[in-house]
Design brief:
Elements (H helix, E strand, L loop, with lengths): L1 H5 L5 E5 L18 H17 L3 E5 L3 H10 L4 E4 L7 E3 L8
Helix pairs in contact: 2-3
Length: 98
């Protein structure tokens, strides 16, 4: 990621439920519920910020964890799902049109 940022390509991180890994994560489930996975998510968020991400999506992350992560970073977070305490929220609706 750092190589992309270094050549001027903006990168947004994505933590929590990552759809490409849904089967490895046990299905569509809230991520970061236990202490170990919450600590890993916090460490990963800081690593993304340190590598130059301009923002991070937090998907299906418990609200208290999203708030903690968001407060610990200087870049914005965007919550999808349970992350209502992120910097901003994405509300996805199947009946909404683009």
């Amino acid at each position: 990621m750092r190589a992309l940022v270094d050549v001027g390509i903006p990168v947004m991180g994505h933590l929590g439920l990552t759809p490409q890994s849904v089967h490895a994560l046990g299905g569509h489930r809230v991520q970061g519920r236990d202490d170990k996975s919450a600590a890993r998510l916090k460490d990963d968020a800081k690593a993304l910020e340190d590598a130059g991400a301009f923002a991070i999506v937090l998907e299906l992350v418990p609200a208290p964890l999203a708030a903690e992560v968001s407060k610990s970073l200087t870049i914005p977070t965007i919550g999808i799902g349970a992350a209502r305490d992120a910097t901003a929220r994405c509300s996805c609706c199947p009946t909404c049109s683009a």
